[in-house]
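Notebook entry, structure prediction.
Reason for the run: the old model in the group folder had no record of what sequence produced it. Starting over properly, with the input documented here first.
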Amino acid sequence: MWRGAVRYSVFSGVLVLLSGCGLFDFEQREPWRDEAEQACLAAKAVKVSAYVEPAREIDGPGACGMLRPFRLSAVADGTVGLSSTATLGCPIIPVVDRWVNEVVQPSAELYFGSPVVELKSGSYSCRNVNNRRGGPRSEHAFGNAMDVMAFRLADGREITVSRGWRGQPREQDFLREVFVGSCQHFSTVLGPGSDAFHYDHFHLDLARHSRGRTVCKPVIKFDPRLPAVMAARGQFTPRVAAEAPTSPTQAQRPALPGGRPLSLGIPGLLASSGADEEAGEAEGVVDQGPVLRPPVPVRR
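New structure, fully documented this time:
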C-alpha cells in the first residue's frame, strides 16, 4: 500500500508539472479571432511582397497562435523598416500601415521635417498580459498587437519612447501627437504613465473590449496640431473637442473654424471584461509629466 501511495504521489506531481508546462492546456481561442482573420484573408487585405511573407500556422500552446500569420520586415509599402522581423496576424497589418501613413509620418514631418524610416518594435509572443502567471492571454499571443519602442528618422535621429516622453519639448510633442493619433486607429493604446509595464513603449492592439469600448491610457492633456494640418490638406476631418486655452502655447497652434482652439483629452475608457489587455493595470497610476493629468476614475 505504501508503494502504491508513493507511485500515485509521483504520478500526480508529474501531471502538475506537465500542466504547468502547458502540455495539458486545453484553453480555446475565441471564435471571433479566427473569423476576423479569415475575413481579412478573404478580402486580401494583406499583399505578399519582398517585405511581407506568409508563414505557417501557429497553433498553440493553448489558445496562442494564428491561422495564417505573416512575417514583416517593413510596413507601409516597404517605406518603413522594422528593427526586427515582426510576426503579426492579418487584421492588424493594414491598420498598422494606415497608422504609419496617417499618423506617424505626418507627425514626423510636422515636428522634425524628416520622415520615419524604421520602427523599433515587438510583435507575437505567446504569453499572458504583462507576463503574469495565471492571467488572461495578451493580444500579443494572437499576433493582434504591436509594441513600438522607438522611431528612427531619415536624418539619423532616433526618438525613443523611454527618453522622449519626458525629453526635449519637440520629442514630447511628437510622441504625444503619435499617441493621440493612435487612439483613432487601435482599440487599445497604452503608453508611459498607463502602468509600470509601459514606461518605455507604446502598446497598440485590436482587442475587442466589451460594448465596443476603447482603452487609451494614460489620459493626457495635449493640443494636437496634426488634425488641423491634415484637414487643411483635405486629407481628413479633425476629430477633436474644443476647449478653452489651457497653456500659453495653445494660442499659437491651429484652430478650428470659428477660432476655437484645438484640444484633445483622451479618456481611459475601460471595458468591464477582465480579459482586456493591460488596461486595468493602469488605474491609480498618474504620470507626473508636465503635460499629463490624472486618469478619470472608472467604474468597472
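Summary: The CA atoms of residues 130 and 197 lie 7 Å apart.
The old model has been moved to the deprecated folder.
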